[in-house]
Amino acid sequence: MQKGIIAAGHDKTAEAAALILKEGGNAFDAAIAAFFATFVTEPCMSSPGGGAFANILTAQGQSVFLDCFCQTPKYKRPISEIDFGPMVVNFGSTTETFHVGMGSIAVPGIIAGIYYIHEHFATLPMSVLVEPALDLARNGVVINDFQFFDIRVLEAIMTKEEEARNIFYPTGSPLPVGSVLKMPALADYLEFLVKEGKREFYEGAVGQRLVSDSKERGGFLTERDLLDYEVKVSKPLSFGYRDKTILTNPLPSMGGTLLGLVMRKLEKRYQKNYKAFSKEHVQTLQQIIDEVFRIERSVTNLNKKWGSTSHFNIVDKTGNAINITMSNGEGCGYMVPGTNIMMNNMLGEASLLPNGFHSWTADTRLSSMMSPTLVLDADKKFEIAIGTGGASRIPAAIAQVLHYMIDFKMEVNEAVHAARLHNEHLELNLEPDFVGKHLPSTKELLKVINWEAPAMYFGGVHTIQRKGNRLYAAGDTRREGFALEV
């Protein structure tokens, strides 16, 4: 009998969750272990210094959405005092400018989120749940292609200060594929954290050092910012699609709303006689995604091409389901000394600040495109857990995989690896099966980019599906995802 199933962004993240399921933990215990593990396995995506969203469905049918994303500071300082500036990241074929420094740090929420899940849904002691991450941090994780790509393209950020430089560029070059990444100071801190409890992060030595450095080095964070941070607990945004119910990220974040818009248009326009990847199918998807993102681009700035974001899903044998999407932005370049904890750069994310940098409203939860999503069947029982990284492309990527699974009845692995497109800012990106089947440019000059192979640009849509009494999972190979059955 299955004890559970995991779809995650890294094999060691999935294995951390699996260890806990084997020890008798539930999906929420396993999620905490996976969360801790991501700090080591996906350090450019996840950190105690970042933010996240969690979508929870208990075996008893309780549905809860947790916003543990980053909060803007309570007070602004004169811009002349702020450490905040551009850093150019080279992607090879293109460059992108991110903004980093102490003045880019928003109030982190991940640790508060982990503790909320533990207090309300978990069954095992935190000391047990952190063990897989401690082992990974001390004994190391082998660098894969995707992690190498992250570390290399974010060189300007990862080498900004000595502590991060020593971890990721110990010889002056990025850790190569096949080498071992270790973060021993992070292990020591996490071990200390679980002994002392959540408030240690916000009130203890780490929080005090973060506030002190922020004050002295041009940041906004104060003691009150950390003390007052709270997880926002709500019901997920819920909407119907065919005979399903889709549960996703509610406002103020925009990702779930955009997902809902795409799905509603698909429900009206998809014709049952369409064949997957036919000309009619491709053109319908192209038009719908363009319309939805055309609406959105009038109210916010969706110009961020990269997406330093990851996602995992876990379902256990009793029917508990949880999926979590997390991000550290690209990191601000600063690690809390002696902890290996890179802080976020959410106040330097153009896509989160539509009116420009430093336009943020004080003491406000930041919006996001992240959309951890659960789908219920006609009987309101769990059927699908799905999510992805990928910045503004997140809603469209999730919508396409759901469309393949629900409308074309594809198996989960086939749906996750089927071709995707994205249409935004008069730029149409097509994976191979879509090439040559799109609508030609009419009034507006449309730039068409034909990808030679499936690419990480289109996200990593790790997914779980229940069919009958069996659970199936797929890790998206575009971002070296991994599925594991226990």
UniProtKB/TrEMBL annotation:
InterPro entries: GGT_bact (IPR051792), GGT_ssub_C (IPR043137), Ntn_hydrolases_N (IPR029055). Its EC number is 2.3.2.2. One of its GO terms (molecular function) is hydrolase activity. It comes from the Bacteria. Pfam families: G_glu_transpept. Keywords: Acyltransferase, Hydrolase, Transferase, Zymogen. It is an enzyme of class 2 (transferase). Belongs to the gamma-glutamyltransferase family. This is Gamma-glutamyltranspeptidase (EC).
